[in-house]
Amino acid sequence: MPELPDILIYLEQLQTRVVGQRLEVIRVVSPFLVRTYDPPLKMAEGKRVLGLERIGKRIVFRLEEELFLVLHLMIAGRLHWKSPGANMPRKAGIATFCFSNGTLLLTEAGSRKRASLCLVRGGAGLEQYDPGGLELLDSDLESFRKTLAKENHTLKRALTDPHIFSGIGNAYSDEILHRARLSPLKRTGQLDPDEVARLHQAGQETLRLWIERLRRETGSGFPEKVTAFRAGMAVHGRYQKPCPDCGAPVQRIVYAENETNYCPNCQTGGRLLADRALSRLLKQDWPRSLDDLEEIKRTARERNRTAPMPAPAAALPVPDRNPTARFSDRVDNYVRYRPDYPDAILSCLGREAGLMPAWVIADVGSGTGILSAKFLKHGNVVYAVEPNDEMRAAAEKWLRGNVGFISIKATAEGTTLSAGSVDLIVAGQAFHWFDQDRARMEFLRILKPRGWVALLWNTHKMDSTPFMREYEQLQQTFSIDYQQVDRRNITAESLGKFSPYLQKRTFPNAQEFDFEALKGRLLSSSYAPLPGHPNFEPMIAELERIFARHEIGGAVRFEYETELYFGPLRQD
Ligand SMILES: [Zn+2]
């Protein structure tokens, strides 16, 4: 995706070519391109270009009569400058803007047409296109610090979120973090003042450096080689190539079609980023589709505002990989097909920890509420703490009739609960997502003096039956990052570090599944590829074969071991 330096060079070269010129004709090929109909695009024709502006990654042409053409290139949109009257190339050409001195051609490679063009009347109409991110280049350290402090995200996410910073995407965020010697997974809330200053300086230096480089490379020509992967980048697009500063091979974090590159030596104290940190990222903090999201939200807003919409359905593209819908699918499968916890855990906690209905429970990482429900039924007041909106909404829908149920949007590291307010903290299928050091501090804060912790996992068995063995093999073969996300990364050692007083008990657990349910169970895993991923079809075909081999009376038995670790966090 063209980012700030690329957009700036486009603007500089457009400045000398189109400002002062009359936009004679606009020809649009792709029905997906134009997202507004009032004023009609025709109105822009015959108007003179008075100036150019940038809003985030968008290019704005200021025309006569207070008209503004807003162009967003998204990932694959590119501009080209051709001779006057040049033809539209059949391949990839989606629009031409004809001036008397030349033709501005817009192309978009690939089948996903996501670039957008809007015509807006009046400067006030432009505001809706401004996600509001800080312009890093113009910012002083104080405004940068305040912007970073607004939300607690991974640095990768914060830098690439257009609502936080303007114009920075996957490529330059990698470069900035390398220059700042900071991990892409470090959270904004964890930065000390020196690191904030370093990031600010690295951000400005990186952007300036690349603007200068691209400017020199382009000269007086039109930028024709706009790409996210440039020779001279330190880490971005350079997986396994030597870091220019230390020679260590550049590493990557891959998720779906996105990739973050970093040097472990320079940025992460030699650590490879995987397992817990990566899992958290996959769950809630990956920047992959912010532009998608922005686009979807805006399209929806426009649809509401301008109804009835006379345009054909094709004019309102629905991106085929809508991340929100994809996650909704998972949540739905999660609610329907994830196993409950055996009642034996309550009697065990009653016997060994003194659990009573009067206890106040904090279910941290409560997800869709499976464990909360257990304690509500037992008579407890349950604070269900869950950062993910979709999961929390599912729990609220299901459990809102229970008087003891209190749903809270917060994280394990910052629950927002009062100090000394909780008798027992439980985490079902969630502890491996936590930042354990910070969660421990937070747990100590909210627990009463003799408070307890109970960590639970339903772990599907890997080789208890031929069916479970083949299912495990299938996950190994087709999953995205199965190894890294696997909760088995939690070791006795890491649990002992969290609290040396934890005891372990295990309980047998199982579910009976027909094929649809088995499929739903598989797709509820965060590492399972969803429809649209190349692994999806072959994975489902294999699942069908496995089911056919092992079903008895139309069902298979899905076996778990429920592991319960419980104990006081601190021995008083
Ligand atoms: Zn290095």
Task: Chart the SSEs and their pairings.
Elements: H1 4-18, E1 22-28, E2 47-55, E3 58-63, E4 67-72, E5 77-82, E6 93-99, E7 102-108, E8 116-121, H2 141-150, H3 155-160, H4 170-180, H5 193-218, E9 251-255, E10 258-262, H6 264-267, H7 275-284, H8 290-306, H9 323-337, H10 344-353, E11 360-364, H11 370-377, E12 381-385, H12 389-399, E13 405-408, E14 422-428, H13 436-446, E15 447-460, H14 466-478, H15 482-485, H16 492-498, E16 503-513, H17 515-523, H18 536-550, E17 556-568
Helix pairs in contact: 1-5, 2-5, 4-5, 9-17, 14-18
The protein binds zinc ion (ZN).
Zinc ion (ZN) is lined by residues 243, 245-246, 248, 263, 265-266.
Task: Give keywords.
single chain, 572 residues, N-terminal domain of MutM-like DNA repair proteins, Helicase, Ruva Protein, domain 3, Rossmann fold, 3 domains, elongated, binds zinc ion
CATH class of the largest domain: Alpha Beta
Q: Estimate the mean pLDDT confidence.
A: 84
At CATH level 2, the architecture of the largest domain is 3-Layer(aba) Sandwich
What's the multimeric state? single chain
- CATH level 4 superfamily of the largest domain: Vaccinia Virus protein VP39
**Adjacency order of strands in the biggest sheet:** 5-7-6-1-2-3-4-8
Coarse structural class: alpha+beta
Q: How many strands, what sense, and barrel or not for the largest sheet?
A: 8 strands, antiparallel
Number of helices: 18
Kindly, what is the distance between the CA atoms of the first and last residues, rounded to a whole number of angstroms?
A: 56 Å
Tally of structural domains: 3
Strand content: 15-25%
The count of strands amounts to 17
Radius of gyration: 27 Å
